[in-house]
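Record 1 of the preview.
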Amino acid sequence: MIDPVERARALVGTPFRLQGRGGGDGIDCLGLVLDAFTIPSAAFPRNYGWRGHDRATFERAARQFFEHISEQTARPGDAVAFALPGRRHHLAIMSDRGFIHADAVRRKVVERSGTFGAPAIGAFRRLDSDKGDCRGNARSQ
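->
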């Protein structure tokens, strides 16, 4: 079974790079989530609308792999979305210690203890994660 928290922790210290999708060049918040859940980067378009409060493109792509859940029900191993100033959004992975995320200010992936410091606006749980199946098989529509 894939443990997204352990996969994300293995990336702590990786450089931040906007639109980064793995490899040695760095990753951004979506790149971290894709890597932690072993989702191919091609599954999410580069213009996924995470800036400017346009979440529709991101959420359409996410439906293949995640169930959109309330942020109040999020638990370690879920991806949580936050609203940032300047009409931006950010993704982090909830851990037992707090959150793991690609920090643009610190320019690297970090694990932050406690709360995130920005309002949570939703969360995403990997499909079939309750059954231990985290293969990411697309849900039939």
